[in-house]
Amino acid sequence: MTLTLETATDRASYMAALLDLPVSSPLQGWGYGEARRVLGQEPVRYLVRQGGRTVGAVQLMRKSLVPGVSTLYAPRGPVLADRSLLPEFARAVRRVARRTDHFLTIEPPEPLVAGDSPEQEDLAAEQAVIPDRIGPFRRARTEQPEHTILIDTSQEPDTVFAGLHKMARRNVRTAERMGVQAGRDESFEDFWEIFTATNERSSLGAFPRRYYKTLLREADQDGGEAYLLLSRHEGRALAGGFFLGLGDTTAYLYGGSVRDDRPPSEGEKRKDAKAPDAFYWSAITDAHEHGYSRLDLWGIPRLLDEKKHSFGVLRMKLKFGSQRYWFPAYDLALSPLSTPLRTALKVRRSYLNYRSFGTTDDIL
């Protein structure tokens, strides 16, 4: 039966439809789209209808490249009642796309198992589970991290703790003995100090400050949550993150940690309070307490290689979860210019990576 895309202009009804679907995707929430306006993108929302029933919801970001040339992007979407609807969804998109829209990129929110071990024996074998095509959609490069760790937070914290890497358990206990306090926190300034210091240390880019402030405000409405979680020792925030929650899923989108450079209260050297470990453990317990059954640690390298720029972050995340998953992307051509335009954008992305990190590879 034919699918149609019905423009959604009412925030509450769109969010209600999204929350009623069997798959959760925080980036498809209304507030995320409002924050992307700060970056010059135009969010367009639709209810996916079939035979008078709502069978999905999608938030598309229209990105204008130059006058007369734009692309569409569904961050971790569309959210559909059944993944088998994707080919018909493609036909529905073609009916509503503008003449200036040259291709659509989707990132279906259903995870595909990559592995349950911190070791990766064969990347090609792991990626073999990913279809190259879904109807008219063709495999593409993702915008959000393709490879991630998902933690089952529906379990009791004691059960989760028992399954952590022994180093994580030891460090969490050390943090507790040293009086580290970790949990939800209202201080955007402390988060921002940690986040910017981490990006500067790792030569990573970031969006304008106004984007994060907007996301924190706009996504914390109508059944969605946006919140900060900080880990403090003797009052100072040493690790923290920005989370986006919707339905059964909460995602750790942005964050980092800093060294405690204060002089020690006694002795010649300040002891490591293991604040980052306390932060990750708090993220797990907080997700459980607030009813989320899944915590997305949001990004690890596709190739688990010590040479990767982001390997240090990977090592920390693997202490708290080893269930790895893929979230692949797919492109749908909307005009004859789709292929050359995608090629040009790929070259530009590789150039920017090389200029910043000395390699054409993505960070993750």
TrEMBL record:
Quote the InterPro entries the UniProt record gives: Acyl_CoA_acyltransferase, FEMABX, PG_Glycine_Bridge_Synth
Any GO BP annotation: peptidoglycan biosynthetic process
What UniProt keywords apply to this chain's record, in alphabetical order? Answer: Acyltransferase, Cell shape, Cell wall biogenesis/degradation, Peptidoglycan synthesis, Transferase
Task: Establish whether keyword Acyltransferase is in the entry.
Answer: yes
Which intervals of the chain form a coiled coil? none
State the Gene Ontology terms under molecular function.
Answer: aminoacyltransferase activity
Fetch the Gene3D superfamilies from UniProt: 3.40.630.30
Q: What PROSITE patterns does UniProt report for this protein, alphabetically?
A: FEMABX
Q: Name one Pfam family in it.
A: FemAB
Q: Which family does the similarity line name?
A: Belongs to the FemABX family.
Q: What is this protein called?
A: Peptidoglycan bridge formation protein FemAB
- Organism for this UniProt entry: Serinicoccus chungangensis
